[in-house]
Amino acid sequence: MSFPSDGEDAAVAGDPVVLEITDTSSSAESGSPSSPRPPPVAVSDLSRFHPLQSPTVTVRADRRRLIDRSSYFRALLGGSFSESGREYVQVGCNLEAAVQVLRYLFEPSESFPITHHNFLPLLEGALFLAVESLLVDCERWFHTMASQTSATLVSLDFIIEVWYFAQEHGVTFVQDICPEYLAQNFTHVISRRSFNKIPYDLLCSTVECPHLTVYSEKQLCEAILYWVSENTKSCEQKNPDSVDGHTFLLSKVKICLLPLEFATGTKRHWFDFGNNIVCTILNLLKDSLKTLMDAIVDGNLEGYCIRITEYSKNIVLSGCPQIITAFLYISVLPTDLDVSLKRRIVSSYTQVDHQSFILYDELEKAAKTLSFRNVHMVDLSKCPNVHFGAAIDWLKLAFPELRIFRALHCLAFHFDDLLYLLLRCPWIDEIDMTIDTSTITPKQSIVSSSSEVLGKVKQNPRRYYTPCPPYDRQLNSVSSNISRLILEGRNDIDDVDLLKISVLKYTLCYINIRNCTLLTDNGISNLLLKCTKIHSMVVSYTSFGNQSIQTLCTTDLPDHNDGHAHVMAFNIQELHLGGCRGIDAAALSQLMSIINITKFLCLRETSLTDDGLCKFFGSRLEYLDISETVVSMVSLAPVIRRNCNLNCLKTAGCHSLLFEHNEVEHISGNKYGDFLQEIGSTGFLEDVEMGWGFCPIQIENLIPSFSKVRRLTVGLGTTLAENVLCALPMICPFLESLTLRFQVISDRVVRNLLESARNLQVLCLHYCLGNLTSFSFQEKAPALRILRLQWVTPWITNDDLTILTKNCNLVELSLSGCKLLDSNSQEIISSGWPNLALLHLEDCGQVTVEGVSSILNCKALEDILLRHTGRGIGRSIVDDAIRELPLLRKLALDLCDACEEGYDSPSNVEGRMMRSLRMSRCKTMRGTCLELPREGSSKPVHRDTIVLEWNSTRLTTTIVKERV
Fold it and tell me: In what residue span(s) does the BACK domain sit (predicted)?
């Protein structure tokens, strides 16, 4: 056989050989035995053979290069046997792999890179054809790929495919790298659809890898439980020992670090496993010091160490009341640290008086705690037993690049701790120390109020050893980076404290002081005078008033000549003024005329009028709340028209929405419009609250403007017809939350919602009319998490509750007016929804006639309301609830339900999360003006409510002349 010489490819210029490569892989189609041989092609033409059209390819190649680069061809073409000298050689292998290897051997390396698309064919070809250099390159590429900490670079399906190939062919470097890669990127991997397809042995190797990176132990446990549930049935059929394997996987979870709510939730489908977790957490809460000391002696401390690796970005311990300060420190100690020093550290950070915190200096200088520079967020929310002074020192030691710190619902996180955090970790960008807002509002009539300082207010332990000048004096010398500060609900912060925050004047851009009731208009104004870079404010339900508005609108930098640029209000991007009664209409109108670049605007329950809203000419709004104001469509219509990016519109309670007001100044182009017409021509809403002014509504008017709605509230003043309510899942296919007040509903409406709105997580029905029956809730709703049925389902029985527990997995349940329920309802609720965080029962028959023991079995409860539910609640209910429920923050009772003529006040809330206790009192009125009193007839009438509220420093007792 002859070959052309002129113009021949350089790859075959020396000693050419023709390779006839026939595909022998399982996917190859068998060709006709009599089919002619395909003509030979040059190696350079192989790039065009994709996808391969024939099971056989004939290739011209340079014999010398094949022999030099491949042990397979060295033996085949360079040996002493007869085939070695032939010019035409037949090879049977995976055709795609062979073609990829030949391209690798003869094409320039820069034009033929290894990717996840060609990696497996190259690896298979390198193994079969024994190309040592390619094996090295494949291993190098796979190492490089695995060193990337973003799982977006390669699909999980690819990793699984490579793992199976490596197991079959004994490729050890792949078997070593795959578990490490998945472990480092585990937070990304668990969100992939193919996560449940990960082979058991690969998942085992991954969870055992020391580089396993998760945000929390909950994230790991959720992933394993999901994998086990998806694989249990098929695995049990193939492998009877699979249950033991699944047990092994679950044993790798550090159950003592799981959030309590999550732990109780696992009891629903994994009762034994979940019950073991709950018991472990509750036992740990009783004596954490002894537990940790025993673990040190036994060398089992690893099970109590938080998972932190060099790849960790977030650390989330939210909802773990069992976490104490010692847990934080042992997690960043070197593994080779002396046992005696470990014992001293654990003992020190567990003592109540914290008198041994001088160990901090020893840790900082001698022990050299580990440092994790990739960690940008730490969340210690709902961790009442953490000492935050010591926790701040921990943040400084371990996380030099920390940007976000969250400690929500932590009364133990004092304002002094905030100042100390600014001193110790000035590089932090965002702090959130939100607590529940006060239940007392300015609208309520207060009979009497008194307060007392709490007995034990923990001081910062560092102050025991380091003589410090006042924080505010130290802060002046600190360059802080705080741009976002959230203090919502903190009614322990006053104007003096707010003045100390003004040290952040060069960086503070966002502040949330919602429901900080001790702050005055003067105090807020002074903060704004100093922190002039603030462009986002949440000041709802505070004393924010005219003085603060004048500060925002006043020209304070006369050297500026660029219009409004020197006026602080001109730069406002987010402004929440809901419930600020201290603002008059004139001041609000002045503010509206300036804030033209605002994106988020809440004016709920303010003195906003049409005149004020007409002065707003902004066109960037994404969020607008004007609920409970007197505005009409005269002013609202042009605002909707101008703001095409509006995705949230709340107008509930606007009684005047359909009425024009003569006093509104005429504006050119301001034409009165219809709400639905306006939003239909504007954009797509995601969050809607509507009441007066939107009736009647036709289905066609809601499409397509409501096609992206996720949260919908319909209140008094709008009546949605049954056909519209039934069509909601079609109109709003992404609907997640639905609240209906004073609507006419039916079984058909509710069943259709539960059946068709597959994303529905929240369903609230308040005071709705209609003929609902038990048939309504017999549809499965796996996504539903919050259910509130207030005065709409008086027919609910224990059987109906049982059906509900089977059809949905709730975390919040609120029932009112369900008079057929009895004491057995408690057991149904607590066993069916063990992870309930909120339980409100009002006028619900005789639920508590035999006490509340089953309710207290829902260990994750944070909010309980029991009113007129049966005269059987004992005197010790408050102490019992606080002791049995580590996450409890709110408790509301009615003295009508007391079986011993009242309740004892709590004796100890130290180390707890209790924020408010409400006890309502009723008096008995016999008969009415319309009927004569009869023997034994009585009707409870509300008299007042005793409210106990805790903050970080004080207990306030208030008597309110109404029910709260």
Answer: 159-268
Distances (CA, A) of 532 to 463, 496, 506, 540, 575: 33, 18, 8, 20, 15
Long-range contacts at 478-481 (CB < 8 A, ≥ 24 apart): 478/422, 478/423, 478/426, 478/503, 479/426, 479/506, 480/422, 480/426, 480/428, 480/504, 480/507, 481/426, 481/427, 481/428, 481/429, 481/507
Q: For residues 444-454, give the mean pLDDT.
A: 85
Residues 919, 920, 923: CA angle, nearest 5 degrees = 140
SS (H, E, C) 601-644: EECCCCCCCHHHHHCCCCCCCCEEECCCCCCCHHHHHHHHHHCC
pTM to 2 decimal places: 0.89
Distance CA 274, CA 817 (A): 33
State the helix-helix crossing angle for 271-286 and 288-298, rounded to 10 degrees. Answer: 100
Residue 298: pLDDT band with limits 50, 70, 90? confident
Helix (H, G, I), strand (E, B) or coil at 417: helix
CA distance 878 to 546: 42
What is the DSSP track for 668-710?
Answer: TT-----HHHHHHTT---SEEEE-TT--S--HHHHTTTTTT--
pLDDT of residue 480: 79
pLDDT at 287: 85
HEC profile of 207-233: HHCCCCCCCCHHHHHHHHHHHHHHHHH
In the chain, the amino acid numbered 83 is E
Give residues with Cβ within 8 angstroms of 799, minimum separation 6. 774
* Helical spans, DSSP H, in 209-338: 217-238, 242-251, 260-266, 271-286, 288-298, 325-330
Counted residue by residue, the chain has a size of 964
What mean pLDDT is predicted for residues 515-535?
Answer: 95
Which of 461, 475, 510 minimizes the C-alpha distance to 359? Answer: 461
At 427, list the tokens.
């590089």
Distance CA 301, CA 281 (A): 16
pLDDT, residue 240, reads: 40
Number of C-beta neighbours around residue 935 at 10 A: 5
CA separation for the pair 241, 456 (Å, rounded): 55
Question: Following DSSP, what letter does each residue of 707-767 receive, concatenated?
Answer: TT--EEEE-TT----HHHHHHHHHH-TT--EEEEES-EE-HHHHHHHHHH-TT--EEEEES
The single-letter code of the amino acid at 570 is: F
Residue 437's contacts (CB-CB under 8 Å, 6 or more residues apart) are: 488, 489, 514, 515, 541
What's the burial of 913, exposed, middle or buried (CB within 10 Å: 0-12/13-18/19+)? Answer: buried
Residue 251 tokens, joined:
């044993």
